[in-house]
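Predict the 3D structure for this chain.
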Amino acid sequence: MTCRSQHRLRLVLSCGVLFLALGARAHNSSDSYLTVRVEGATLTGQWDLALGDLEHAIGLDTNGDGEITVAELREHQPAVASYALSRLHVRADGTPTDLRVSEQLAEEFPDGTYAVIRFAADLSHAPGALEIAYLAFFDVDRQHRGLLRLEHGGRTQTGVFSPDKSTQRFDLAAPSRWRQSLDFGGNGVWHIWIGYDHILFLLALLLPSVLRRETNGWKAIEFFRPALINVLKIVTAFTVAHSITLSLAALNIVRLSPRLVEPAIAGSVILAAANNVRPFFPERGWVIAFGFGLVHGFGFANVLAELGLEKGTLALALVGFNLGVEVGQLAIVAVFVPMAFALRASWFYQKLAFRFGSAMIVLLAAMWMVERIWNVQVLRF
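Done. Predicted structure below.
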């Protein structure tokens, strides 16, 4: 490899590390949960909106103390209702519906307090199709996603709204189950790409994949094949582990509060990266990937658990979401591992990327852990 090519690879790898550092809000995904029910000519629904999202959109923190109370939410109920009705539009067989808010509540979910908006509309007839335009929060947060559960005639459909798919049409008579799975597949890819804690955990395990541990330190491996086999073991172990706990949690067999899971995920990142700086685990990255992957699966499950899907529909969502996570994960591997192998013998990789990079991951994850345990903001970017 020429010096020029090596310089380009180093530049790309440096930009990747910088991207992660600047974007490191670590898995603070923004989701809302929308349920729509159609029974004959009556449409009812419920929309759960996180108070943090509403604060960014319309402002709820009246006294500016950084905490949004239920009393402040009640004070802003007219503004919340107005915002919701202006950002949700439903057409029944092409005819606009007149949505009205029937009730407003506050409800505590595992990941925080949500404003619960119940709404209804009277339709002229039992519709065969619905077109839903979801426009909430995209102007203030492009990472926001709206998760839909649509119930009609004993069947449940799902959907995921994003800035690029803010308007979607649903056939009530013959719902497409493949489409539902694909929607959650795309959400799985997106979820892993914005979950910087998951990415850094994976990178902490991949960094030593092009090196071998010897008595006098880490040395570059000679051939790509052993590195590839090691990476495949790590990715497979992580996939199997988080698939197990993702399924158990989403099916409501085993549930852990995000207040426990999120600090534990940060802790797993710390241990995986610290093991690169001062090894204390046996040299079996796949064992670490499996053990801590069980914890990460509970983190993934929070996206699906609150939808309350029936088992048949949930199975499709689970398969699609999990496959999406794997596609997103493999994309990261496909970019990182060849670059790491090309630079493995250089000072840049062994000292800066591997040792210094691992130390920075430890520091960043430690700040995430402080934030998640004590509910404070340490990182201001």
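The domain at 3-27+195-374 is CATH 1.20.1250 (Growth Hormone; Chain: A;).
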